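Backbone shape codes:
===
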Amino acid sequence: MRREYLAGVSAFAAVANHKSFTGAAAQLGLSPSAVSHAVRELESRLGLRLLNRTTRSVALTEVGESYLARVAPALDQLAAAADGLDELHNRPAGRLRINLSRPAFWAVLAPRVAAFRREHPQVELELVIDDELADIVARGCDAGIRLGETLQQDMVAVPVSVPLELVVCASPEYFSRHPQPLHPTDLQQHSCLGFRYPGSGALYCWELEHNGQQIRYEPDGAITVNDGVILRHFAKAGMGLACIMSDIVRDDLADGSLIRVLKDWCPPFQGYFLYYSSNRHVPAKLRALIDYLKV
């Protein structure tokens, strides 16, 4: 790769991955205008149009797709070489981009990120909060954190939480007005709070199981939210039953501000995993985070 092309190639690859000059600029630590200029310079040198631009979108041309496929391996090798310099000094350092959902942040990173930064002050964390199931390679991220059941098989996955459970619960005040359900069929007599996935917009159906019997219940309550913390708030306020992950309401169950029901119908499942591409070199900065978070 010619040296004078390198800045433009890096900018082009970032724009292609993010499908956005703004997103590429954030990744590279540059202004959007600087990224745009670097890409135009590259196109001028090559005599080719690599990107189609409109006021609302950016897309690769056919030539751009071919060029990206050719230069991406070289960029990966350069990144690995830079990471390797840190390893030679045995010093985790540099920017680490982690893609994770909001629930994963609160469950895994929020309790531990400050202590990790104190232990590794040379590691700069950039957290990309993304409630869709993102392609971390395409988004230019070093790793992601998601529930184990959602991960692709070509990823290396490290457990960073204990197994979780779904918890059906409500406040003592709610149960002062309504009998506790003893079987999932009793849920039809209750106000059940709904949860809508932020990424897909699909309504979550409660997945209950006991002795091999599976029951899916679609809540039809008056309140539906797309955030687990807000769902917890409405449950504590006595607005109805919630089906929510155990890590979000652990303290509320312990202090009695929420009461759990139908426990036998909520078996444990895999918790959160930190994951990264199996084809990716693991730099010292990522290894440090893995060692700190793994359980």
